[in-house]
What does this fold into?
Amino acid sequence: MITQEAHLSRILHLVSPLPVTEVPLSEALGQTLAANVTATVDLPPWDAAAMDGYAVSLKDFAPGTLPVTKTIAAGHKQPESIGPGEVAAIMTGAPVPQGADTVIPLEKFHSPTQDLPDEITFEDVPQAGLNIRRRAEDTRAGEIVAPAGTWLRPNHIGAIAAAGTDTVFIARQPKVAVISTGNELVAPGTPLEHGQIPDSNAPLVAATLRKRGAEPTHQVRVRDSAESLEHTIAQLEHTVDAIILTGGASVGAHDISNYVLSAWQHEDPDQAITFTNVNIRPGRPQGFGLSPAGTPVWSLPGNPVAVLVSLHLFVIPGLAKMQRQAPHPRKHTVVVNDDLHTPRELNYYVLASVDDDDRATPLPSNSHLAVKMAQATGLLHIPPTVDHIPAEHPVECLTL
It folds into this structure.
């Protein structure tokens, strides 16, 4: 048996980042930045009005009635200025005229209207600096807007666009073949005969890949036949960046993934696909290595919860490195609502429902309980040095 850390270390050693490509920002959602994005302009590019109102110079200001000498709308291209005794009507987002020290909200003087008055009466001296968005208070030209390794969400897309950039460099999205093995597997929705079960692993793996910015290009079911598996992989390995198999990773008579893949010869024995027991539960039998063509191959157990755990511990970090992300699972600390008892010597991962207050209720986590996964939002990690975590104590949790 090897440690979880040793198995992950080997995966990260053998997996390589994918090539970089430039894409339009409109196509970058869900991709991973391969280079820093920096602002091309100051934001805002000039002092701007934060609301509709009146810009006024406070130099030599005295309360009274002052003329509205100009109107400045958003998008106004001509630089403007005002001096003592002048007022400029200004709209939200418009450039503040040179000489203006403050912007007073329109509502202080009159009700909203499209017919603005020719003069405004001030009963007192306004406070300086009101309602002005200062130049570069958001960011300055040349500052980093989104660093390399960022997985682009909608907020990043908006920020990058605001900073004046319309294309980005990304790590190419991994193309992954998903292979489910087992005579018992049939497509979900197929009427079951005795001994058959729906294949939940392929949809689980494919959905996880999509969520993490990878593309499941193939979903294939293979019977427990060495010839079938060899033929399937031979067809796929030159067309994808990675292969993920579920089932057949142990040492049973019909565990074909183990027997087929471990028999492959490799020029570098350190890169060959090897199978081992890892000190985790569920998910102890694991296989990984490079195919003769150099394609990373993960061979995972067949039970659904074991697949889920394996994906988060070993597959997602490897795909993250391919996409030039930090290859570390997302973890946080939660408080458990119930006692947890586990044997020592293994890293136990327990399905849990985690609420908004980071309180976790453990769920039944036997590796075959596929439907119980629907209630889970996290995986609690019980380290091998611990056999009991009392209720109300903190525990590490992986976010699902």
